[in-house]
Design goal:
The structure is a homotetramer of 322-residue chains. By secondary structure, chain A is α/β, with parallel strands linked by helices. Helices cover 28% and strands 28% of the residues of chain A. Chains A and D meet through helix 4, helix 8 and strand 12 of A and helix 4, helix 7 and strand 12 of D.
């Protein structure tokens, strides 16, 4: 990780925008990207800035939270992807929502009276705090990192701060407790977004992200949309309606589908979607964070699609059957 | 029409098999085929012989009844098309089921006591006979033509015969009454069958005939079959289940779908069928007898299919959107 | 079996109309009906007469061929059921299409030169005749029974006749050969039709017959019709389109569905059909001829329907869940 | 509105829990409930506490944000409704996300240097702040109300606070600017939740909220779920997948459907859902906040359902048709 520019001019380094400052969960997600190592990491204040950096060429890619975020902004991110052209998701990353309680060196847990914390993070650690620091008071912080930085800088009166574990990589802080979030299984899903480019090659464990508007609002339109996937044996791992906002009762759907655009069944489903809907936004095909191999009925394999095309070609040419 | 072989060797004449003898409704259907004029017409005894003539190269094409036949054999014809490989339907023809009462010259209607008729034709003229010849008796005939030929030859005791109108083109007979069938709207549908060959070019008023086996018997399998058409805006004009006969509860479906295999939506539906079913028999795309232009929602036009493919190609290549 | 009226006046005997005369396949079907024993059997000339007998109270029930008939008239039967109100199918019977060759006592197979046969039956025995009587000639008969009766009466010149096996129960004839039909598995399906009445009680091996018109012709209307069955786990054993005849492109569908109207899933499907279509004709629920128990996924059992209704009632009443 | 207990003992007053303190958007939603006037309003710290108050009888109802909340906690609310039994949504309320900038009396906009704000609200006013207070600094606050309370109490160094408009009803503060949020159309959707009870009577403009688990994960299961609505002409205004969390790839769906459980088509859809899914949570039918009359095809009206039931009853009884 290197927030400062590289000394050598060649090759030119790439820039990655992310919700900063250093130490956020988003930075932890970026830390999972091998290609981002030793490149320029550009902290920004929100998802809109991160995506605008990409579109306006200030960054090569942006890491943004897309599901279950504790840093906020998920529906903002979905709406931005639906309305900003020229973007492509190229990777997915999962970060456990795993808070730590940190303090200046020398401070002990029993000394803690005032806890700095972003209000959302604070709400997620209430059970632990009630059990272990029943007498504490809360000092609101502007972000999950600002809570700890205030302590380091000495500008905060807090005795301890709630922060992501990554904070310990950046600041000289003492770990008082870890895993203090009330939900030990909470995970935030992030995606890495670049400008439009060919998708990464299929790995067998891929996901395709789409945003699709219904052609018109009638009972059954949604069904017709989803049939495009079901009739090709494609499972969805995310489906969410979002009001489009231009007229009452108009919706777009945010969709993650199992598989890659280079899989025959996915390509065929995309053709069907495009014919069905006035607006299909292809956000990209990319490896799933969980590396789970996509399973599907044999009748939807590439071979079956290719064989069917050969068969049709034979029919049309009028060759006698073999 | 020329039942006898042609004298000139060039060009070689084509042979058409049909349910004979001359004068049947099937011959009337063949009379609608411009290309069959001045070629060899080969009368046979049943559908099986007609199709075998084609497969075994004794004929170039066969005319067979496929729906509402009064000459019989429709389900035999469907089953034969399902099991004999190497055949292709190339045309469709409609013949009104329009019986005449004929007699030797000089015979008057009031003289008629014994009426020769194929039993099926006889049953279809019962109302007319009861009204106009209440005292008549029935002499069964082997076919709709044999009834009249017996009179001409003098080997039949009948005073009159029920026959198709075409009989008057072949024999010196007197027309006693026409349109004597009980159902004035009855029409038999015929198809012209050749060996496998490229289908006639699309006319905009085409039909595609298929026989499809369900992959396995479960509630919903039929639905999935029909979705292949519905999700491409394709109407069906014929749908009939036929037990396959190899195991209880296994069916094949005889299908006529509006459109031509060279229409994008039909080609796409055939690909879907082929992937869905272990056995799809393409019997051919050919002009509809009624010349009715096929109508379909604009979203299933060729343009939309082509545009969607271009769009997908752009996506995969990673080009920025226009 | 008793074609003549019974001597005792009490209880009043029931009348069954069937395609006669005695000896037809239809009579064989009627012979399978235990309740018809010792009742009045009324031979008629065609399906229309048989059904009219029921509607106009001349008969209590009629036996008619409904699938794969060699006596003809299947589509006539379907159309009649679609248009004559007040009828109900109460039973299903299967009769093998099993022809015999019969002659006057003393005649030997090698003596046979002229064979009397209904033309349709004759066509179905051609292979056997070619193999065993290659030199024979055909004398057309008006029906499968008339062929044999002519021999018995001496008014026919034929040496032998093709007839159903039942002929031997009625006439003093010698069996020259049996099983002479070309397709040893051919079976005709018959139904027994009464006036509207409660359906026979469910047996677990039942069938429900329906005729349904599509509400309007659009791609997908048929699909919606069939979904009514598929979404309740109901299999179809017969599905056939029939043009209605009142306007181009309008169809009705002849349907046999597995199950009984008193099965919850079938009742629910009928409700769905009725809401969907302007015209649903319920022809009846009755035991299947093959006594095959109807199988369906557990989630469509009566229990599940009843439980769901209880659950909904609880919801609406606002009772806390158990 | 009356945070203090009522003086008169009769009738007993009802208690409403809401995300406090006084002045939040949630309180503004509660202000829209006529029945809540002059009752006890109980401020709590999060959605979990609010719903627990209802279940454990400390409150009669709770107001919670369910969509587009700026106070946070939407997915928490959805998950809580999915897992806490005994709850029922009885009303829906919309509150514009409409921030104000407030200060102690006498402070002028040009004097403001330090702005107290909950970090999420702060992020939503960034554009306005950049334009009007480019030199300001941010003082994080624990909530949208705490920001302003700190100013009133004098314990905050901030010159001004970002807060909901409702703050002005509770505290002696000066309005420096209103409508300062970056998205002028932002609206938060709230629902009022009681213990299980009969739903409010249908108004014609109703909504039914459900949470449904898929029975098992297979392509097409979701489709089958949604067919339950589409085949009864029911539109959805919200559909969102949520991972159940007990096993990979298992989902529940949060659904808002147009109509009331006492509408025939909705009752029928609920029956279908219950038969389809192992777990259907009915959260309630209640008037839509936007009072938009629900429209649906005539064929799904109550009359059609009732007529179909009468028809079926007639069929089963075997009465001749009228």
């Amino acid at each position: 990780m290197s927030p400062e520019p590289a000394a050598t001019p060649h090759p030119p380094r790439r820039t990655y925008s992310y919700l900063g400052p250093a130490g956020t969960f988003t930075e932890a997600a970026l830390g999972q990207v091998p290609e981002a190592r030793d490149q320029i990491w550009r902290p920004v204040r929100n998802v809109g800035e991160a995506l605008a950096d990409v579109v306006e060429m200030r960054a090569d890619a942006a890491m943004i939270a897309i599901e279950n975020s504790v840093d906020g902004g998920v529906s903002t991110a979905q709406d931005a992807l639906a309305t900003m052209p020229g973007l492509r998701i190229v990777g997915e990353y999962l970060v456990p929502v795993n808070f730590v309680l940190v303090a200046r060196p020398g401070v002990r847990l029993e000394d803690v009276e005032l806890v700095a914390a972003h209000p959302v993070a604070y709400a997620q650690c209430l059970q632990w705090l009630s059990a272990h620091l029943p007498e504490h008071a809360h000092l609101p912080a502007a972000s999950n990192v600002a809570s700890a930085v205030g302590i380091v800088d000495g500008i905060s009166d807090a005795d301890a701060a709630i922060a992501p574990p990554g904070i310990l990589d950046h600041y000289d802080l003492e770990l008082l407790a870890k895993g203090i979030g009330d939900n030990p299984n909470a995970v935030t899903r992030f995606v890495l977004v670049s400008r439009t480019a060919p998708s990464p090659a299929p790995t067998g464990a891929d996901k395709t992200s789409l945003i699709v508007e219904l052609p018109e609002e009638y009972p059954g339109a949604l069904l017709e949309l989803l049939e495009q996937f079901a009739t090709r044996g494609i499972n969805l791992s995310l489906l969410a309606s979002r009001p489009i906002g231009d007229a009452l009762g108009r919706y777009r759907f945010v969709i993650d589908a199992d598989g890659h655009v280079q899989d025959e069944r996915m390509a065929d489903a995309l053709l069907g979607l495009r014919r069905f809907s006035p607006k299909v936004i292809y956000l990209g095909s990319y490896p799933r964070a969980d590396r789970q191999i996509v399973r599907y009925p044999e009748r939807y394999s590439d071979d079956v699609f290719i064989e069917a095309r050969d068969w049709l070609r034979g029919l049309i040419s009028g060759e006698p059957e073999a």
